[in-house]
Every structure is written in C-alpha cells, then in structure tokens.
Amino acid sequence: MEHRLHLLVCAGTGCVANRSFQIKQKLEQEIIKNGLQDEVKVISTGCQGFCERGPVVIVKPGDIFYQQVKETDIPLLVEEHLLKGRPVKKLMYKPSGKEPPVQKMMDIGFFKHQRLIVLKNRGRLDPENIDEYIGFDGYLAMEKALATMTPEQIIEEIKKSGLRGRGGAGFPTGLKWEFCRKAKGNLKYLVCNADEGDPGAFMDRSILESDPHLVLEGIIIGAIAIGASKGFIYVRSEYPLAVKRVKIAIEQAQDYGLLGDNILGTDFSFSLDVIQGAGAFVCGEETALIASIQGQVGRPRPRPPYPAESGLWGNPTNINNVETWANIPGIIQKGSQWYSSIGTENSKGTKIFSLVGKINNTGLVEVPMGITLREIIYEIGGGIPNKKEFKAVQTGGPSGGCLPKQMLDLSIDYDSLTKAGSIMGSGGMIVMDEDTCMVDLAKYFLKFTVEESCGKCTPCRVGTRNMVDILEKICSGQATLDDLDKLEFLAKTVKSTALCGLGQTAPNPVLTTLRYFRDEYISHIVDKYCPALVCRDLIEFYVIPEKCTGCQRCVSVCPTGAITGPRSQPHNLDKDKCIKCRACYEICRFDAIAGDAIRIKSGEEA
Amino acid sequence: MKKLKVGDLKKIRDKVQKTTNLRKSQSRAVITVHMGTCGIAAGSRQILTRIMAILEKKKIDDVLVTTSGCAGFCSREPMITVEVKGEPPVKYGDLTEQRIDKIISQHIIQGNLVKEFVLALGSERTY
Ligand SMILES: Cc1cc2nc3c(=O)[nH]c(=O)nc-3n(C[C@H](O)[C@H](O)[C@H](O)COP(=O)(O)O)c2cc1C
C-alpha cells in the first residue's frame, strides 16, 4: 500500500492568497518529523469551492474537512489526526455559534446540496499531474470518440444531451458544432472562451485551475467532431494561475501524444495554444474576441456572418465557453441519456454559480438546473449574515437582472430566468440584503457597462451614459417622474438597438429594478427618501443625545472633525462638516458603549 | 516521452488507480489501528507499518487503513478493528506482526475470522 492517507490542500487562487502553499510545506515538514512520510501523501488540488472558509484541507479517506487552517495548527493536526487518528474538532466547520462542529465534508450544507459534473475532480486531484487525471478516467472519453465514434455520432450525442452554451446566451452546443462541421473550408478553428469578465464571477477560472485537462479533453473531442485542426484558449491575463496550469496541461498532453500530430497514433491531428487577453469585458463577446486574437482592437462586429461560417481569419470557427467544453467528456463517456436525465425540460445538466455578496457561505457551487434560488441562497449559501433580510439577487452579472424576494422559488433554468427579466448569464450570483439601495445598485452595474462599452455603436456609447446621468439625478433627489419615463424609454431603446450583447443586455439591471422595485425609484424622486439609507445626498447623520454616552469612539474616527464633545457628554455632529462616510455610524453600532446613538435618516424624517 | 496509442490510457489509469482509489471512497474493507498512547507504547506503530507493507506486497488496493484512538482495552493492545463491508466490525487484540499476516490472509483475503485472536464482535452501543 503506497499511502494510507491523502491530504488534499486547496491551491485555488483564494486559498493560495490565504497561504495554502506555506501550509502544504509545513504539513510536509511535520509529517517527516513524525515519521509519517511513507504513510501520508500531501497533494495540492484546485479550488474546493468553499472559498469563504479557506485555506481548506481535506483528509481522505473519510472526507474530514478542515477549514481556516493556519500554519500554527499543523503540529496538532499531524499528531492528533494523522498519527493517532483523532480528527481535530477545533479546525472543523461550525455552521453557527452554538452548533457543534461538522466533521464530514458531505454533512456541511454548502456541499451536501451540490451535484458535481464539471467540478467532479475539484479538490480530489492534482491539476498539474496528467496521470492523476487519467487515474480518474481522464481522456477515456476522447479515446472513445476517436476510436469508436464518427464525427456525426459525436455531434448527435451532444445534440441529444440537450447541452446549451454556458457562456451566457444558452445556444444549443450540438447545433453550433453541426453548423461549423458543415461550413465550407478546409481550415477550421476552435476557441475556448475564458475571458470571464463578469465582476464577481470566477467559475471559469476555477475550472481551469482545478481541472485543466477536463477542458482540454472537451476541446479535443470538439475538434474531432468538427474537424478542426487548431484551437485557442483565450484567457484574461489577470488569471495567472489558470494560465500557468493550462500551459502545463497542454505540454503534458503533447508529451503523451494527446495533442499534436497523429493523436493516439491515429491520423487525427490538432494543436492548442493559449492566448492572453488584456481583460476587457467586451472581449468576451465572440466577434470582439476573434478580433483580439487576430491582433486587432477588441471590438464586436454585426452578425451574421456567424463565426461558424466566418471567424478567425475568415475561417469557420467554433467558440464555446470553458464550462461548456468541460461538460463534453462526461456526455461522451456516460451518454446523452444520462446527461439529459439531469435538469429541466429545456435546461439540462448542472450549472456552476459563484455565490457572492451578502451571503454566509461565499463560494463556488455546482447545482442541477431547476434548483430554486431559495435552495441556493439558504441551503447552500447558509442565508444572509448578521440577521439581515434578503432583498434581491442579481443573476448574470451586469448583463443580468435583479430578482426580488417573491422570486425566491423561481426554478433556475434558462427560460424561467429570461421570463423573470434576468438571464442565466455565465453564472454570477450576487446576493443583496436590506441595506442595498436598488437605484444605487442599478447605477453601479450601469457604470460598469459605460466603462466597458467599446464605443463603436451609438446606443451603447451614448445611451448608457445618459441612463447613468438620470440615475445619478434620481440618487441625488433632483429627478422628476418624467425622468423616470425617459429612463425606461432609453433602456428599452438601447436594449433593442445596440450592436452587440454588451449594449443589448446593459439595461437589464435598470429594467428589472424598475419592474420589481419601482417604489424605491418613486421614493427617491417624490419623497427624496432612500429607503435603504444609502444615497448620500438623501441621508443625514445625527446623534441621539439621550442614547449617547460620550465614549468618544466616533470622535476619534471622524475624518473631518465633524463630531465634537467632551468625554461622558452627548456629542455634537456638525452637518456642514459631515461627509457622510458612515465611519461614526459603524463604530457606534459595533464598538461604542451606547450601541446605536448615531442614526441615519432620510427624506421626510430628515 | 513515448507517445500513447489507443488502449494505452487504460494502462496508465490502472496503474494510477492504486493511489487514486483512496480518494474515491470505494473500499471493500477498513482496517483501523488503535493508536492511543497505550497502543503506541505496545507497538501499534509497527503493526500499522506491517499492515501497509503486506497490502502493498499482495497488491490489495481496495482496503483502507486508518488510525483511531484508544479502544479502551489497553491491556490487550496493540489492537485493530477490521470492518468488511456489510459485516459487523471485528476487534483483534494482542497483535504481533505474525498475527497480522495471518489476519490479512485469512480475514481480509479469504473472508474468514481468525477466531483465536478475536477480542470482540460488533461495537459498543452508543447514543
Ligand atoms: C459583452 C459580452 C461579454 C461576454 N463575455 C463572455 C465571457 O466572458 N465568457 C464566455 O464564455 N462568453 C462570453 N460572452 C458570450 C460569447 O459571445 C459567446 O456567446 C460564448 O462564448 C459562446 O459559448 P457557449 O455557446 O459555450 O456559451 C459574452 C458576450 C457578450 C455580449
């Protein structure tokens, strides 16, 4: 027996930032110190998904889950668990203050409700070692496709699986492949879109970091089916770890003859390269991406012709998202019937979401299509922190929409989300609590699109900027109800006239907040009142003298000297000097003796 | 590096699976070595090494080896618990390296209890 225990140390970007490399080193040292080096093996893996609790270490067999591990915890962990077999409670996950620690990974709500297809190897293999991937049946789907299937059979299998593109638009993948296979031309290209420009989204990065060979295998199967000879993985250069691991994977696959000339000794040849993008949101759009690979300015062009007909250097090109490619090996290996049994009528398989914002369990989750928002937010995400109320969730990033509490039981699939005014998008999921102002939120997302607009078409360049201007007027209490109509009109116009998906979806945050939170807009305009107490021009800070104990905590944090007063006497807040930075408010709630002597008021109250 | 041909992948997989099986949570049996202070003092460390060596020699890769604390019967250490899937756990005591060899070939490989070393069948009742 080689080893009796494997320690899987997460080496995703999040955990690495929390010193997981040092933890691995320390583990190895301690293991040697205890003479356990022949019994215990330490392996770096990709992201385990529960980034909130990093750095994460899992002990196999047994799936004991350790979280927020520090270097100083290692001696205890090695002696108690690895030598004596007594799992260390103090490093286990505790759901909340009073509940006992949870030992097994699968008993933690965050993991229990997930279903892994794409991320099945996350945290269980070393992404920089091709043999480990092969040990988990890696590249066998590709071998099957190459040795036993015709290109038409592969395409048919993908069509029957019901797989739709995970990059945002949800186009049926098999159909796209068929277009490209049938397109005229001897030279065909494949592209893996790993631009991932949604703020707060990190699904594709994580897939590439934790299982790069899975993506490679999917792309090679696509190449066999489409008859492509050359492929590119387009990654933003802000993803250095992903770039590094993909490059290692390509090299290893080349060495094994899984990429390059005469793959697996057959007459099929295909090569793959990495292209690093500079990280502009619009470069994720397929025609802009093609321009960028060709060395031109990353700007979109009208379609048709679609890339399947005329893409890279005018040749038929098939573009899919990282997660789409990563779904392919499983479908080929286990069959379309297996795949299509998961999910809903029109949305098959699983989807990965990056769950962020005001949520207890931040992280990456893979769930079957058709799960409800409520299950993701409460059962997996563990609900909203600090006993706050859930207010809304933004799906699809800046191109998506904002869904309110009434929509919590919405099934997550392409069609339901579109009907609700949002989109699946690439899988960003940002949760907001009662302290979020919906007008401010719409402004935030729209500002992002204004900055990322390439400026080529007028609706997007000028229209979105005008929309931001109106939103700013609303937030500062200077707008009229006419402005609201104008905002809505502009939003609809931009949506229907912009050149590419960026402009066409940019108004979604405005349109959905208008649909579900119109009251909040009206409050800002008519009552000059910001219900969430966020918009600076509509709020005012004041001290409640009866509550103030004069502890001077606020005096010390106020950057402008707006708060004065001798110790032990109610303080005075000078409104003219106050810049509304919230520092006094926060410190009064969490650090001061009185608790909440500093309050915020808005509108009529003010 | 020699390029692979169709059929070669499975060979690599089968070789690697010896290590990866440990991570798949699929095992036919679990051997737990009790490693309390009493166990370690009585030689359970050598017992553990011996078990791993025999499993390696006999190419058994579907049996897990774990450790746990003192089983409470300190005078009979070193002790192990053998759990074959679907059967009640069996505790063996007063172990030596020779006895381990016999337990692995009789119990783990052939599926028969080694009655003379059995301390107890099943485990204590818990709440
Ligand atoms: C502004 C904009 C940004 C986009 N960003 C991405 C991206 O980061 N990653 C991605 O895969 N697709 C992105 N897309 C979608 C791509 O244009 C394209 O539809 C997708 O890569 C196709 O792959 P799929 O069929 O597998 O989803 C973006 C589209 C638009 C309009």
Count, helices of chain A: 24
What can be said about the biggest beta sheet of chain A? Answer: 5 strands, mixed
- Quaternary structure annotation: heterodimer
Rg of chain B, Å, rounded = 17 Å
Proportion of residues in helical segments of chain B = 25-40%
CATH level 4 superfamily of the largest domain in chain A? NADH-ubiquinone oxidoreductase 51kDa subunit
How would you summarize the topology of this molecule?
The complex is a heterodimer of chains A (606) and B (127).
Chain A lengths: L4 E6 L2 H5 L2 H14 L6 E6 L11 E4 L3 E3 L7 H10 L25 H4 L17 H6 L4 H9 L2 H11 L11 H10 L6 E6 L8 H8 L1 H15 L3 E7 L3 H16 L15 E7 L8 H8 L23 E5 H13 L1 H5 L9 E8 L5 E6 L4 H8 L9 E6 L5 E4 L9 H6 L8 E6 L4 H15 L5 H18 L5 H17 L3 H5 L2 H9 L1 H10 L11 E5 L9 H5 L5 E2 L7 E2 L9 H8 L7 E5 L4
Parallel strand pairs in A: 1-2, 5-6, 5-8, 6-7, 9-13
Antiparallel strand pairs in A: 1-3, 3-4, 9-10, 11-12, 11-13, 14-17, 15-16
Chain B lengths: L7 H13 L8 E6 L2 H6 L1 H14 L5 E6 L11 E5 L5 E3 L4 H13 L8 E4 L6
Parallel strand pairs in B: 1-2
Antiparallel strand pairs in B: 1-3, 3-4, 4-5
Bound molecules: flavin mononucleotide.
